[in-house]
Design goal:
heterodimer, A: mainly alpha, MetI-like fold, 2 domains, B: mainly alpha, two-stranded antiparallel ribbon, 12 helices, disordered N terminus
């Protein structure tokens, strides 16, 4: 028995070490290497004692000024997409929570079924259409695309959260002469804030990191941060790992910290959406 | 409590309409109508900037006779199979490990979820560095131990492994959290009962945990299958489909058709083939899996 416990304990310790090596070490590698002098980046075995330097960040600033515009573009697009997705999903989620019937079920199925279409297929018809509308390379395109691709999941998620709010509350407000939009704003939204927050976390992570749509639909004015990182990786001949790590660090650190802070909501959202929906 | 409930009415209840409109406008305008247009596009010869002309099924015939299409399809299936199953095994193992009690559980949970926040681009940076053929620490270590290196930019099979690796790393948190949540929702009394009946831990897993986790396992596999079939960025940012188009997947094949070779009609045909094949394969696979489960239970 004693021996068995020891064995289980050892096995668990190894498992924990593997978990950390698998999920944290790669991220730590980027962030730590961004502060290493170029000579130490390639040291084998990896060098842990080094004099931290901001040289790579300075190089990033002087050689890739556009990257910082990219960060701003990413922030604008993320904020816009989150706002649109959360509002549209909360409205639809409210409707699906309070009204039932075959037509409602069919329209919900439609919302979910269209998500079976791969985004890359949708870029084909959208590309000429967006060019014709002269919306190419604008923030609006990405905001609308990102919001749309989260509105189906978002609606289901919000429905799950709004279902928990007793309908008697709306009923009472309705009798008091409140409009349905008034109810949504003053009753439903405050009480489903946790769901809205969970949805916002999803959209923010997606929009901040998205590559494909940004790659196809932006070129200069609305180009987002991930595209700049990809471009740096592409200029492989004069490859500067230090600058690449610095850019990657700036791109990922805010969102990693954000996810750490909002982890609770993220889990609530994932489990509510996936298991019940 | 009858307010607003329209049982059996064939049309959408009118008070619901204004609330449904924004979401449906977005989905209709951005996904559904364009998808229908893709059908028309796939039946026409279209290059960007020119009016399409009807060519019937020629684009489909071209795609289905193009060896690169078949290679891309094969690669996609290989990557999907690796990704879905490895993620399922790792996710399940992790979920059971967490459920069995771990020290510093909250910290470890945060650690496992962390890659969810990392972009495909940054993940590509990490893995390209770790497995760089000259300086990558993992490859250097493998070499020093006398093991073969992962020559992802040279050997096609290694390239696919690299793509699968990046994809698994990015998406394991999703698979894990679904399975872990499902595991936590299994009532502890059931394990209590299994213990009293003196079931071995393997038996407990086989007769308690696994059957009760099945719905969640199917949900996780379905989601991951659908999303893995679209894989694009993980390939584009690592091997870019090379060397010599050998690690191309359907997403990359389609992208090249449309945006490099300017053949939107051909790309549209590939797009619809991609949708249909993924649905047929996915439905068939899940149907078989479900049937197997039912016959197991009987």
């Amino acid at each position: 028995m004693q021996r068995r416990r020891l064995l289980v304990g050892t096995a668990k310790a190894i498992a924990v070490a593997l978990i950390l090596a698998w999920s944290l070490v790669p991220i730590a590698f980027i962030v730590v290497s961004a502060f290493k002098p170029s000579a130490d980046i390639f040291a084998v075995p990896p060098r842990f004692a080094f004099t931290p330097t901001l040289q790579h960040f300075a190089d990033l600033w002087s050689k890739w000024r556009g990257f910082f515009t990219g960060l701003l573009n990413s922030a604008i697009v993320t904020a816009g997409a989150t706002l649109v997705a959360v509002i549209a999903s909360t409205m639809a989620g409210y409707a699906y929570s309070r009204f039932r019937g075959p037509a409602m079920a069919r329209s919900a199925l439609f919302l979910v079924a269209v998500r079976l279409l791969p985004p890359i297929v949708i870029t084909l018809p959208l590309f000429p259409a967006i060019n014709a509308l002269r919306l190419n390379d604008t923030h609006v395109v990405l905001i609308v695309l990102y919001a749309t691709f989260f509105v189906s999941l978002g609606t289901l998620l919000m429905r799950t959260f709004i279902d928990k709010i007793p309908a008697e509350l709306d009923e009472a407000a309705l009798i008091d002469g409140a409009s349905r939009f008034g109810i949504l704003r003053r009753v439903i939204m405050p009480l489903s804030a946790q769901g809205m927050l969970a949805l916002a976390v999803f959209v923010i992570v997606f929009a901040w990191n998205e590559f494909l749509f940004a790659f196809v639909f932006t070129s200069t004015r609305a180009k987002t941060a991930p595209l700049f990182v990809a471009e740096m990786m592409g200029s492989l001949d004069s490859f500067d790992w230090g600058v690449l790590f610095a850019a990657s660090t700036v791109q990922l650190l805010p969102i990693v910290l954000f996810v750490l802070l909002t982890q609770k909501h993220l889990i609530a959202g994932l489990t509510a959406g996936a298991i019940k929906g | 409590m009858s307010f607003g409930r329209a049982k059996g009415r064939p049309w959408l209840p009118s008070p619901a309409l204004p609330f449904l409109t924004p979401a449906h406008l977005l989905v209709l305008g951005v996904i559904a109508l364009p998808a229908l247009y893709v059908i028309w596009l796939s039946l026409s010869s279209s290059t960007f900037g020119k009016a399409p002309t009807f060519v019937g099924l020629a684009n489909y015939a071209n795609a289905l006779t193009d060896p690169y299409f078949w290679r891309a399809l094969g690669n996609t299936i290989v990557v999907v199979l690796i990704v879905v199953h490895v993620e399922l095994l790792l996710g399940l193992g992790l979920a059971l490990l967490f459920a069995s009690g771990l020290p510093a559980r909250r910290f470890l949970l945060a650690a496992v979820l962390m890659p969810y926040a990392v972009s495909e681009v940054s993940a590509a940076v990490i893995f390209r560095f770790l497995f760089d053929l000259d300086v990558g620490p993992v490859n250097v270590a493998l070499n020093a131990m006398g093991l073969p290196m992962l020559e992802w930019s040279v050997v096609p099979a290694h390239g696919l492994v690299m793509i699968a690796l990046v994809s698994i790393w990015l998406h394991l948190p999703f698979t894990f959290i679904i399975l872990y949540a499902a595991r936590l929702s299994i009532p502890a009394q059931l394990y209590e009962a299994a213990r009293i009946d003196a079931g071995s831990s393997l038996q407990t897993f086989r007769y308690v945990t696994l059957p009760l986790l099945m719905p969640a396992i199917l949900v996780a596999m379905l989601f991951r299958y659908i999303f893995a079939f679209r894989v694009f960025s993980e390939v584009w940012l690592t091997t870019q489909g090379g060397p010599a188009r050998s690690t191309e997947v359907l997403g990359v094949y389609l992208y090249l058709d449309a945006f490099r070779f300017n053949a939107f009609g051909a790309a549209a045909a590939t797009g619809w083939l991609m949708v249909v094949i993924s649905l047929v394969l996915g439905a068939g696979y899940l149907w078989g899996l479900r049937r197997q489960m039912v016959s197991d239970a009987a």
